[in-house]
Amino acid sequence: MVSRTLLALSLILAGGLASPVMAEVLIMPNGHPEAARLPMQPHRGMTMQQVLKRFGQPTQRLVPIDTPPITRWVYPKYTVYFEDRYVIHTVVHPGVHLAP
Question: Which residues belong to the signal peptide in this entry (predicted)?
C-alpha cells in the first residue's frame, strides 16, 4: 500500500517532468513495505522555516505546481515535498546508503 501511494505521489508530482521521482522501498520483517528513511531527514508536518533552520538551504528549489501549491526542495540525499508550507513527504534518493 505504501509503495502504491509513493508511486501515485511520484507520478502526480512529476506530471510532465523529464524524470519521475523514485523512492527506495524496503520490505520489513513483518512483510509490509516501508519507505526508506535516513536517521536525520525532514518529517511530515514540519514547516519550510523549520526545515531551513534544521537542514540548511536545499541545493535546488523547484517552482510550486498546482493548487494547493506542491513545492519540492532537493537536498543531496533526499527530496522534500511541501503542500503549501508544510512537509508532506521526504523521498530518499536511490543509491543513498541507509543506516542499519
Answer: 1-23
* CB within 8 Å of 69: residues ≥ 6 apart: 82, 83, 84
Here the cell at position 73 is 526542495
- The pTM assigned to this predicted structure is 0.64
Is residue 40 scored above 70 in pLDDT? yes
Lowest mean pLDDT among 45-54, 66-75, 90-99: 90-99
Cα–Cα distances in angstroms (integers) from residue 98 to residues 22, 37, 69, in the given order: 16, 7, 30
